[in-house]
Design brief:
With about 450 residues, the chain is α+β, with helices and mostly antiparallel strands. It has 16 helices and 15 strands. The strands form 4 sheets. Strands 5-3-15-9-6 form a 5-stranded mixed beta sheet. Strands 7-8-14-11-10 form a 5-stranded mixed beta sheet, with helices on one face. The protein is globular. The C terminus is likely disordered.
C-alpha cells in the first residue's frame, strides 16, 4: 500500500476542493476532508453498494454486509503526507514526540530497511520496564498523547486489554492507525483521479452548462461516495468475488459457525485473483495460548466474544473499518481433525504457561504440539498478557494462575477459543470456508479524533 503514489497534484487539489472532498487546507501539513472517505463502498443509509452483486452467489468467495454510517461530523483531519510529523501525530503521538521521531527518521543512514512505522513502533522500547510502571506512565514514556491513551485504557474493555501487554496493544494501535492513513490517502488520490476524469467528460459533452458535481454535501451526516470506481478498488473486497447481502447469513445445517474481529487493514489481499482465500492476516505466530511454535488460527463460537474484540479495535483506532468475520465450517471437516480439549484446569495452566514462554512442555503434552499431534485445540482464553504469565516461576504456576486468569465476559461466562494449528490445517480451513465466509463491515465509529491532541 505504501508503495503507491498518493501525492496530489495542483489539479488534484483543485478538483477535490470543487467537489468538496477536500474542504480546507490547514496549517501543520494537514487538510480537512470529507468523512465519506472513511466509509465502506456502499450507498448511504445502509443500502447495498452498486459496485457489488446484491444477491448471494454460489460462485462468490465471500459475502459482505455494510452497516450504515452513523451520524458523525462531516469532516476529518488528515495529514498531507504519509511521511511527516502530522502522520506521526495521526497515529497517536504528541507533537513533541512526533517531531523527535520524524527528525530521527529523516536523519537515518540510507539505504535503511526501516520505514516510518518501524521508527514509531521502536518508541515502545522506551518503556522496557513496563511491568514496574502504571500503564499511562508507560505510554507517556513512549510519547503517546492523552487521547490515544484514553482509548487504549477504556474501562469497558479492561478484560480484553489484559489479554496482551500495553506495549503489544500500543504497537497494534500504531500499526493499524498508520495503515489506515495510507489507505485513506489512497482513497483520496482515487477520488481525485475520478473527479478530474468526470469533469473532463462533462466539459466535453456539455461545455456550456457543465457544473462540478458535488459528491459531498455539508448536511450534518456524511454521505458515502459509493460510485467512484477508484474508491472501490481501495477496499480489499474484489468485486468479482464478493456479493453484498442485506442480512447476516443464517447458520447452515451440519456446520459450525465461528467468529473473529479484525481491522480491515490487517487483512491484506485476503482474496486472490482466482477467488481463493489467503487468510494470512489472521494468523498468530507462536507463543499464543495453545500454539507453542506453530502458526495458528484462533476463532470463537461466541459472537459476543468477537464483538468485544471488534468494539475495542474500533475504540482504539477510530478511523479504521472494523470487520466482524463469520465462517461456517462443515462439522465433518472439523470432526475429522485430530482434536484436543483444554479447559481451565491444572493442565490448562501448565500448557498455557509453556506455550507463552515458548518452552517445551512435559511429555504428557506431546499430542498437543508435536508433529502428527493435535490439529485443533479447543479451550478457554487466558486473560493475562504473556509478560505477566511468563514472569510466573515454574514451581508457582498452579498457585499463581487461577480462574481469575481466564477471560470472562460480563462475569457471566468464560470465553472460549478454537485453535487451528499448522500451515496445512490453515490451508485446508481456507479452502473449506470459501463461499461460506461473511464480513460485516462497520464504518469507523468516530470521525472526531483530534490529530495530535496532547
Amino acid at each position: 500500500m505504501d508503495s503507491l503514489d498518493t501525492s496530489l497534484t495542483a489539479e488534484d487539489e483543485n478538483s477535490l476542493a470543487e467537489d468538496r472532498i477536500v474542504v480546507q487546507k490547514l496549517s501543520g501539513g494537514k487538510r480537512k476532508v470529507s468523512a465519506s472517505l472513511l466509509t465502506p463502498p456502499s450507498s448511504h443509509a445502509g443500502s447495498l453498494s452498486s459496485n457489488y452483486s446484491s444477491s448471494s452467489s454460489s460462485s462468490a468467495t465471500a459475502s459482505v454486509r455494510f452497516q450504515p454510517l452513523a451520524a458523525v461530523n462531516n469532516t476529518i483531519i488528515l495529514p498531507d503526507h504519509s511521511e511527516s510529523v502530522a502522520a506521526i501525530e495521526f497515529c497517536g503521538f504528541t507533537l513533541d514526540a512526533a517531531q523527535q521521531i520524524y527528525s530521527r527518521f529523516v536523519s537515518r543512514t540510507v539505504p535503511n530497511p526501516d520505514d516510518l512505522l518501524d521508527y514509531m513502533k521502536s518508541e515502545t522500547y522506551r518503556a522496557k520496564d513496563e511491568d514496574e510502571l502504571l500503564p499511562r506512565v508507560a505510554m507517556s514514556k513512549m510519547g503517546l498523547g492523552q487521547a490515544i491513551q484514553d482509548r487504549i485504557m477504556d474501562d469497558r474493555f479492561e478484560q480484553i486489554r489484559q489479554t496482551q501487554s500495553i506495549t503489544a496493544w500500543v504497537r497494534n494501535t500504531i500499526e493499524v492507525n498508520y495503515e489506515t492513513l495510507l489507505l485513506l490517502q489512497q482513497r483520496l488520490k482515487a477520488a481525485a483521479v475520478y473527479t478530474r476524469a468526470k469533469k473532463k467528460r462533462k466539459s466535453v459533452q456539455h461545455p456550456e452548462t457543465f457544473q462540478p458535481e458535488t459528491v459531498w454535501q455539508p448536511s450534518g451526516t456524511a454521505t458515502v461516495t459509493s460510485n467512484i470506481p477508484g474508491l472501490s478498488a481501495c477496499h480489499n473486497l474484489p468485486e468479482a468475488h464478493v456479493s453484498a447481502v442485506a442480512v447476516r447469513p443464517v447458520d447452515r445445517p451440519d456446520h459450525y459457525t465461528l467468529y473473529k474481529g479484525k481491522a480491515a487493514v490487517e487483512m491484506g489481499d485476503w482474496i486472490s485473483s482466482d477467488g481463493s482465500l489467503q487468510l494470512e492476516g489472521l494468523r498468530t505466530y507462536a507463543k499464543g495460548d495453545f500454539n507453542l511454535n506453530n502458526p495458528a488460527y484462533y476463532w470463537t463460537l461466541e459472537l459476543e466474544t468477537a464483538e468485544r474484540y471488534c468494539n475495542y479495535a474500533a475504540t482504539r483506532c477510530p478511523y479504521s473499518e472494523i470487520w466482524l468475520l463469520q465462517v461456517q465450517v462443515k462439522k465433518t471437516s472439523v470432526d475429522s481433525l485430530r482434536s484436543k480439549d483444554l479447559w481451565y484446569s491444572n493442565e490448562w495452566k501448565e500448557f498455557v504457561w509453556h506455550c507463552r514462554k515458548c518452552l517445551q512442555p512435559p511429555p504428557r503434552y506431546d499430542d498437543f504440539w508435536k508433529t502428527n499431534g493435535a490439529e485443533l485445540i479447543k479451550g478457554h482464553v487466558c486473560q493475562n498478557s504473556s509478560r505477566i504469565i511468563t514472569n510466573i516461576k515454574k514451581e508457582e504456576v498452579q498457585t499463581a494462575i487461577s480462574e481469575a486468569n481466564v477471560l470472562s465476559l460480563n462475569n457471566q461466562f468464560k470465553a472460549t477459543q478454537w485453535c487451528f494449528l499448522g500451515i496445512e490445517v490453515m490451508s485446508r480451513f481456507d479452502a473449506e470456508v470459501k463461499g461460506k465466509i461473511h464480513v460485516e463491515i462497520r464504518p469507523p465509529p468516530d470521525s472526531e479524533m483530534a490529530v495530535g491532541k496532547p
